[in-house]
Amino acid sequence: MDSPPSLEQRTALSGDRLLCIAKVGGVAAAYYGSAKLGLSLAFESGSVTAIWPPTGIALAALIIWGRRVWPGVALGALLANAWTGVPLYAVLGITAGNTLEALAGAYLLQRFADFRPSLERVRDVIALVALAGTLSTTISATFGATSLLLADEISGSEFGSIWRTWWLGDLGGDLIVAPALLIAVSHWPYNRAPGRALEAVGLGAVLVAVSLLVFSTSTTLIYLIFPPLIWAALRFWQPGAAATSLIVAGVAVPFAENDTGPFAGHLPDERLLLAQTFVGVAGITALVLAAVITERRRVEDTVEYIADTLQESLLPTQLPEIPGVQAAAEFRPAGEPHVVGGDFYDVFQGDDGSWAVVVGDVCGKGASAAAVTGLARYTLRAAAMHESRPSRVLDVLNDALLRQRSPSEFCTVAFARLEPNGPHARATVSSGGHPLPLVLRSEGAVETVGSHGTLLGVLEHPKLNDATVELRAGDTLVLYTDGLTDAYAPERIVTHADLTTALASLAGRSAPEIAREVARTLLGGTDHEPRDDIALLVLRIPAAAPAPAKEVVVRLPGQAGAVPTARRAIGELEPTLEHAVFTNLRLLVSELVTNSIRHADAPASAFLKLRATVFRDYVRVEVGDDGHGFDPSELVRGHDAASGWGLYLVDQLADRWGVANTDGTNVWFEIDRG
Length: 674
Prior knowledge:
Blueprint: H1 7-39, H2 54-65, H3 70-81, H4 88-112, H5 122-150, H6 159-186, H7 197-215, H8 226-257, H9 268-313, E1 326-332, E2 343-349, E3 355-362, H10 366-384, H11 390-403, E4 411-421, E5 424-432, E6 438-440, E7 446-448, E8 467-471, E9 476-480, H12 483-486, H13 496-504, H14 511-523, E10 534-540, E11 550-557, H15 562-570, H16 579-599, E12 607-614, E13 618-625, H17 632-635, H18 645-653, E14 656-660, E15 665-672
Antiparallel strand pairs: 1-10, 2-3, 3-4, 4-5, 5-8, 6-7, 6-9, 9-10, 11-12, 12-13, 13-15, 14-15
Helix pairs in contact: 1-2, 1-3, 2-4, 2-6, 3-4, 4-5, 5-6, 5-9, 6-8, 6-9, 7-8, 8-9, 10-11, 13-14, 15-16, 16-18
């Protein structure tokens, strides 16, 4: 047997019922108030009006809150029609028609059109017009006109005219009021469109001025309404289209009622029908335009996402750590947005312990280039597992490209086999039609490695050669695509001499610095986007670590008094350091020692270890404790966090830092000098 509901469940159910009752009451009140406004414009019959906003309110309420709020529609319709002087059974018939109309409209939209209230698809706008505006409104018009006929409120000869007025009045409510309510709810807070507040004010002022001009004169100028509506749809999308339609209706209806403007000279109901129909058609036109724009934007966003994801999948997420080698990459796609480029690079380890270094350039862009890039990258990885000579690896790729049997699927590749050996390394290089790799020697000389081979994917037997170069401590191997030299061609060409000069000036710098500065030097100084993708891969054999100029090692108690002790200890380094470096050093040492005391979770008798070492180019500090370690990514907070400031400062002020969680916790950081 089921157990009775708990207090929490009963409370939730009670709250849900109260909320539903409140929604029903709100719908009834809104329906009644707008109905009184519509009936005040009734001329041919006290129960029939050409302006009937309640239809749009009822439809929007049932779509947004669900069909269970239908009693609110029925109650509002009953109260609104009870004072029109028609018999009770006619009032009940009209009420039934109004309620069934709203239920049918919501059902048809949700059941057959997969309707979305945001109206961001053209199909949603068309469904609103066809299923709700045109079809469901026939229910209310038929019920209402028939009820009035049975009550002898209208004659048989008037039935057609009354039915048409009733149907068109409800149609206007569905086409003008319902979209405005649906969009108001689904698009909040209205900040997705490109238009901004000041522009909206200007648009509103222009639209009001144009509407007053158009609807206050008998001269046919109604076409002037469309430019502001188009402006609203282009810049403010659905919210703009719906809001401007309401503004136009708010100006057109009063002038039509007073027999002024382009619709003057007709019967009162005819004037109102003409005004409302014009506003409805103009509003739907603006909504269709807005839907086209948002659908296109959605497609562009999808294409951008796919392109970015595909581009990322064709490049390493990060370079692997090569023992004894510093590696850095610089990749910049061409200026054309959302298009997958043809440049790629890769670094991976072979079965024999050597490392494969690849930079390539596929002909073309887009999906076809991405397919060739994927083929090239994974073919090179597979071939490198079986072939030791780079030229043979490229030959395997050439065969794979030829098997595709597409004359446009070719590429250039520079492939290097790197064999680190302590403070030295050996690189064997082969180029398949690619710019030749460069070696930057520690003393500043720049050398070209290898010889140009044949494009891959063109000839069955390409010309491919291997060249070997020895890399000593401080030397750097640089591989790049022609986008680095042709980024702004033909206006600006980077010559081989320009490239070697830029590299020579960076001798002795780290791999990341070389990659960054080469790109800045060769590609900076222009606002234009590069015409081609740019890939740059830098591998440097670090120079022997210099002997420390000064070092401080101290053992600290795991208590609050350790902080001033640590500050006094590193004070010995002040004479050997620049003022700014020492100031940051002292601050960060204080923060790390404080963190160790607070978070190490070690016995009170435990000690901390502080080591500060001054080298020629940088200062390194290590603070160790007996704690259990931590993940630094979980503790680095933003500038507005309540805690985590210590590691946040380390992250901001240090040039490099990290955590070693073996044998306790050892947090280190380095600050570059100069």
